[in-house]
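Researcher: Please translate sequence to structure tokens.
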Amino acid sequence: MHIAPELLAIPFGLVIGLVVGTVGGGGAILALPVLVYVLGAGVGRASTASLIVVAIAAGIGAGALALRGHVCWRIALTFSAPAAAGSVLGTVANTAVGPKTLILGFVPVMLAAAGATWHRAGTPTDDLVAGCPAAPPGRIVVAGALVGVLTGFFGVGGGFLIVPVLAVWLGVCFRRAVATSLVIITLSGLVALASHLVADADIDVPVTASLAVATAAGALTGTVVAQRLPQATLGRAFAVVVGLVATFLLVDTLLLGGPPAA
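Model: Translation complete:
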């Protein structure tokens, strides 16, 4: 029995949103393959749709966690400006490469993120009482610019890199890193999306809208779940999912012909 893509997008969107809300990112790592391999979008169209989906989900999650006082606003805003600039450069580079090159470039980034997430999950987690660290502005700017370039180039929200960077390099406790990451994803993702739209990116509105609404609902649920489950378990589960998706993309691209081009 054939299921309309708009309906098929709903359960996948709920799962993607749940991941975004619980671990502060990773939505695009799941959204991009779902859009391409499950919902039939080409890589170019999928990269734009993933930005829409993840920006909406991140905004919902960020709002919920901001109300609880979990966001490190100084770091979020300092990080977001260079991330936005970097995303524009990354978007320009995105138009210069083919789908297979884009996927093959995405795989090692995913594997590195999976390793960093697993490592972070194995370290003791600070609680919220520690507050926000006084990270050097220069370090925040460099981190933001690098993550922004990847955001625009791969058409992802960047949270799968932002959370490890905030926690490991800037010393933000895990729960605050999740909340702060969602603010950054929202801001940088909107700028990257605007760049894609200026470049006349094509969008499948019904599928994207269905996936976005479901993802937003999942993200809101995820922010609640994240307060009740061990963060080490969530982090390691997320790392495994990212590693499995990266392996699938690599095998498919090299041995099975790769994703559709349109």
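Researcher: Any highlights?
Model: The first helix runs from residue 5 to 23.
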